[in-house]
Amino acid sequence: MSEIIEDKRLITIKPDKDIIKPMAEEFRDELLKVAQDNNKNFKIDLTDVKEVDQVGISILVAFHNLLKDNGNELSIVNVSDNVHKLFKRLRLDVKFNIV
What is the pTM of this model? Predict the structure, then answer.
């Protein structure tokens, strides 16, 4: 389960484990629940995430697209070297705002 921190204009989602197929449905549901707030920007903090598989990537891309369609922004922070390399290989470093 992710830690969700709400501020005035920012919601931070901090998954407590890797974003891989076994936890994908739970993580997707958490993201969809917080995405209901259309007046906020979002940050996903990957401090505790060491691995993201193709299912996790598809969830992140879908969430990014949903937010963008609603006029909201998504930043991804504290990305491990392995995950950052994956994002670069898939050219997601261009799509995502990675801090």
Answer: 0.91
